[in-house]
Input
Amino acid sequence: MRHDHRGSLIGSDLTRRDVFALAALGLVAGMPRSSFAAGPQGQLTWGIHVSLAPTWFDPAETPGLITPFMVLYALHDAMVKPMPGQPLAPSLAQSWSASEDGLSYDFALREGATFHNGDPVTAEDVKFSFERYRGTSHDLMKDRVAAVETPDPEHVRFQLKAPWPDFLTFYATATGAGWIVPKKYVEKVGEDGFKKAPIGAGPYKFVSFTPGVELVLEAFDQYWRKPPGVKRLVFKSIPEETTRLAALQRGEVDIVYSIRGELAEELRRTPGLTLKPVLSPAAFWVYYADQWDPKSPWYDERVRRAGSLAIDREAMNDAITLGYSKVTGSIIPYTFEFFWQPPLPTYDPDKAKQLLAEAGHPSGFDAGEFFCDSSYSNVAEALLDNFQAVGVRTKLRPLERAAFIEAYAHKKLKNLILGGSGAFGNAATRLETYVVKGGAYVYGSYPDIDALYQQQAAELNRKKRGEILDKMQQILAERTVYAPIWQLGFINGAGPRVGESGFGLIQDFAYTGPFEDITLKGS
Amino acid sequence: MSIQTELIGLPPRSPSRFASLRLGDFPLIPALILGGIAFVAIFANVLAPHNPEIGSLTARFRPPVWQTGGSTQYLLGTDQLGRDVLSRLIFGARVSVVVGFTAVIFAGVIGTVLGILSGYLGGWVDQAIMRVTDTWLAMPAVTFAIFLAAIVGPSMWNIVIILGLTYWTRYARVVRGEVLSLKEREFVRLAIVAGCSKWTIMRRHIMPNIINSAIVLGTLMLGVVIIAEATLSFLGIGVPPPQPAWGLMLSDGKQGLMVGRWWLTIFPGCCIMLMVLSANLLGDWLRVKLDPQLRQL
Amino acid sequence: MKRYIARRVSYCLLSLLLLSVTIFFFVRVTGDPATLLVEPGASEADIAAIHQQFGLDRPLWVQYGIFMVSLAHGDLGQSFYYRMPVMELYLSRLPNSLLLASVAMALSLLIGIPSGILASVRVGRFWDSAGKLFALLGLSLPSFWVGLVLILVFSVYLGWLPSSGSGSALHLIMPAFALGWYFAAAHMRLTRSSMLEVLGSEYVKLARLKGLPQSLVIAKHAFKNALIPVLTLAGINLVIMVNVAVVVEFVFAWPGIGRLLYEGVTFRDFPVVQGVVLMGGAMIVIVNLLVDILYAVIDPRIRLES
Output
């Protein structure tokens, strides 16, 4: 019997065994403490794949990545945030409006919204939260926002220095600046105190935290939207994925994040466990880093196109992500604003060989090195095989994550790069970082695309701006600057005790949310 | 300490009280296994039925030939990318042998040289080298390896360098201890009186007597290095794929353990185990045969 | 004697100083933590702000100076990732690692000593070989693999033990075994050679001549004396174990120092790496010192010699 629901039985057996074992081993004090079985009614336990950091309790420190939001959605609330069916749902802000000239945004706060300590959410808190924000893009926000006004405790006005159509995108989704913390409390306990015992306006209250190990939260019944369905939440850090799945199978945890490859198959096969795939906005691609060098074979667009044709995306998808990834022809996620749909890439190794022959490489060529983040070595290896099959020979160079990111960003890589990004934003921000001259990961650029980018940045008319961005993406696809692969299917798992897991409710969100909607089975 | 008679210029001989041990009892099987592995490593190109680095996704996860779904084409089954496990094991022997032996020799050379210098010259040289050794030892090997990997990037030869630099300290300490006791021996004292230079003594008298310990330590370190390579692969900084290495196969196949694809880990695991076990048994026997006083090993 | 101790202590301090310099500059060569803490496409200003926040924008020797001064006050700095004092993090995890290492050490001695004794006495050729083989097997299998197999067999398949984390004695068994088995061989070897040496000694020969039964000879005299070097080695190995437990802690999600260090390295969290390595180094150096002093007390020749 591989896994069963002996949760409570194991609990009582262990107490006796505990004592016996303790006596036998002669150990007395100093046991590391943690909550053991996910047994008690009204509690759900998560097995997460990363180490919990206290910076996640503070929206002021959010980087542009999605990870801290797995906690932020539980502890805190925002003026406007992505919710089920609504990418910009009014939350702490009941309503908002933008002025005609685009220079100011007015927010009306929700009545009756309070923090965990009972204090009401006021305009002062909103202003305070904005001003203390120091996470990603904070200088951008500070540059564009002239002032934050609080005409009365229920209203906030943001004055911009110049019209900025992306203001709400940045305020509500890309940054933590719109997530509200209590001014009085933060000032009283200080920054460190706040990280040790955070207070927010979200559906769950902070109970305890063991750094990197475990986080315990309790339901905040006065949450404005609804009282949460589960009384207690426990988040445990289990970085090794086989161990994580084992914990789910044994009922030690109820929900797990990030189960890859064969383990996902195993999850699917185990009765009582449910596979919960979520299409993440993390796009993956092969970057032709040498395409601007006339001496490189990749200079010829036909060769780049051949590379893209050689990739059997469907087979890789089935093999590596059980088919839950979404093949794409763009480095920009489908759900981003201003996304332009390119033709879907096809798998045609014969055509690829033909193109290579036309370009002067009838028997293929030595393409040098292929760099990737070592956690995605399996994808890279499959790509390597694909390239080899059409004659493009390359050597894999997996780099440890940190080393890879740094080398990629400092332009130290060459030849082929397996890259990807899960950063927030819209088509324009993605293009800026990865295509346009001056971008962090741009190894070379095309003047016409650069010119178009400058144009759209100044364009106020949304429709016209969209057209320009479409054109940019079109050129990108025609020139095969990248060989996009897919949007990653992020596979999670839920155990038998879970009713509504919270997976897939919020678009583009890989984790569970909103937390107040999560329920136990049978409740 | 028992009384030993020694002829000047000859290394000390084993005292008779150990004669009860079967010194002629050569561990045949371990030696054959190691020899076999080396043989496979050398002739991998000829022996392997398939290309170990290229597979086809349609042939993924075939079980070994004696199970249902297996075929004679892939005797020991295939892995997640459809690559033949047997071929990967055969070529993996090459990596294990090369990485293992080279790293051990690399570490051995550095450690022995430093150990001799430290032990014989004494004084501030000794102190300096010992401080460096202490410092190095205090740094956890795995951390050190991760650092080095971050700086030089992973490749088979870099792994050799990393492992060599991580493990030389074991040699240094042991060799130094040996040298310290050797220094007091008659034949060394006589050489000094005879006017030999320090370097000559180190080269002609100390070194040959140290070699035994170094070799024994080497066979024992071989096992340590192979295991270390497997651990580095598990952490993602070992010999880079798609080059087959047993440690990497073990790490890649760990998911397979849970899904019942036992052949992905059991075979490489057995290979590692056989190689390390053989090296250790051989090392133990060598230790007894060459110099039973090597207690610290 | 005092001079000897003083000299040894000064060597310790020198080693630690060297270690601090080495680890300090070494981590800084491995990369820039800022790139990991921001998302792709962060502006130069964002990165510069992070550098400033962590004091990374100052010249190296200034950073080192600040580090050493804080160290003198017992402050290991602030973790980049956790934004809390490294000393606090370290001390909260250290008991877990020590616990794991102690139990692992106990297990390894439990396996190592009996098999070593058997191997030296050769009670029955089968049992001596079996014991030796079992100990050596621990040396021949990577601990992460042993850990994973243990989880699969005892946790998932048999359901006897919890798979990961900490919180009860049962959580300890598998990780302790995975960690301890590796060291069992070293203890076995040392026990064996120790026993052999003692068994060959004049005292034991005399006892045998007197007609005392073999088992009594072993139990009373040989065993006790043979144990001394083994226990000394165990003491040193204990500290090494704490440092080496990285992989086991990772596989079992054990909240110890090893995992802290691994995360520190992965996230380029300089203060954490510096702190853990230094503290670990200090522990090793101190234990070595105590052992050396102990030996010097026991054997006067040693301190007169140097």
In short: Confidence is low (pLDDT under 50) at residues 1-40 of chain A. Chain A is about 35% helix and 20% strand. The first strand of chain A starts at residue 43 and ends at 48. The first helix of chain A runs from residue 7 to 25.
